[in-house]
Amino acid sequence: MNNISYIATEKLLPNPNQPRHQFQSEEMLSLANSIKENGILQPLLIRRMNNSDYCEVIAGERRLRAAILAGIPKVPCIEMECDREKSAVVSILENVQRQDLTFFEEANAIGQLISVFGMSRDDVSKYLGKSQSAISNKLRLLKLPADARYFIEKEGLTERHARALLCIENEKDLWTVLNTIKARGLNVAQTESYISTFYSKPKRKKNEHKAVFKDFRIFVNTVNKAIKTMQESGIDAVSDKTETDDYIEFRVKIPKTVSTEPKLKVLSAKQA
What we know:
Strand order of the largest sheet: 1-5-3-4-2
C-alpha cells in the first residue's frame, strides 16, 4: 500500500467529494513552478476504480492540477484500498486538516461528513482536533443563503463578517446590509455596529398606524352604541369622554332602579 508508483495524469480522476472548489490561479502557477524545479515532494493518495487503469484522487488534486499545468506527464502516487465512501471521508478530512480551504468550503465539508456520511459532531471534532463549539460555529455559516455566501467570498469578506450576518432576520435585510458593507468598506466591528443600529430603528409598516387607529375607532363606536342602546331602552345613561395623547376615557353613569343613588362605572379605552 505504501509503494509509490508513477501514474499518467490522464488516468487520474478528481474526487467528486473534494471539498475544495476554488483553485486560485496565482497559487496554482506558483505551485506549478515549484513542481518544475523540485518535483512533487508529497505523493498523491489514490484508489483504483473497479480494477481499471483509472484511479480516483483521494488527496492531492491541487498537486495534480499544478503538475498538469507544469506539463508533468506522470505523478507519484500511493494507492489506498478503500471504497467510494471511505475515499470521500478521507478526502474531506485530509483537506480540512490542511487548513487552506475557505471557511465556507470547510463548513460544507463538515456538513457533508455529518449529513452524508453519518458522522457525529463528536467524531468530527475528534478527527479534526476542533472543539464541538468550533464545529457548531462552522455549521452555522451554512444557514446563510448560497448567493450570499458567494457574494461574501467574491468580495473578500471574512468569516467574522459572515458570523455577524447570521442574526439578520430576512433575506431583504441581509442584502441591504451586504451592499452597505461593500459600499462603505466596513470592517467587522463596523459591520456589527451597523447591524445593531439597523435593527434598533423602528420599522413601521406602511399604513400600520392607520390600521391600528381604525380598529381603535371601532371600539369607541361600540361604546357609543352601547350607551345609545341604553338610552333608547329608557335608561337615563349619561357618558362623559376625556381624551389625552395616551388614552380615551369614558365615564358612564347608569341609574339603578333599586337605588336612588347612581353608581359610577368607568370604561377606559387606552391607545396602544
